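Subject: Sanity check before I submit

Could someone independently write out the structure tokens for this chain? I want to compare against mine line by line before I put it in a report. The sequence has 213 residues.
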Amino acid sequence: MIESISLNQTRDMFVFLSQQIITNKDYLNKADQPIGDGDHGYSMERGFDAVIEMLSTECPENIADVFLSVGNKLIFSVGSSAGIIFGTFFRSGSKALINKRVLDSSGMADFLQFALEAIIKRSGAKPGDKSMVDALYSAVIKAREINENDLSITLNSIADAAYTGMENTKSMKANIGRAKNYGDTTIGFLDPGAITTYLILRSMSNFVRNLYV
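---
Independent answer below. Compare away.
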């Protein structure tokens, strides 16, 4: 059982998840083509490349600083609304981790809650609008429901819930963002931001699970 991960492991987790997002660049671009500009993957690649470079040279002093630094780097390197939203995801969520010496299940649940509230406030998106909020909201609900000390189990359950939220966006009509302009034609396609949210949480889960090996 892994109850928590250390500061260094958290930093390594972000390098791992950044690599996973970059690997899925083409998939994210393809998902963005029917309802956007088709460049979501390029935006995420640019941001997470910058995250990897930052983490190779900087040594955050605590868990919250890792999340905060990642959020700041995404905001200032992506240069689009996606950078602001995912930067807010990590930056605002980091406030739940202040004074945390390790990342555990309760900290992860608090992080997701803080992140969700901040993104809803900044973007105006709500569950059902076909956005990354749909995946994140499902993850938050699951995080509230489970009471598990094993971080690996917690993250796997959260990622599964995010996947369900992501899949649900396929049947939704976009009510926010640039995709809103496409109207009913957005029905039948996954939201790229929801896919990215799922990939982030699944990568976190896979990283912690691999610590068992």
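---
OP: Matches mine. For the report I'm noting this point. The chain has nine helices and two strands.
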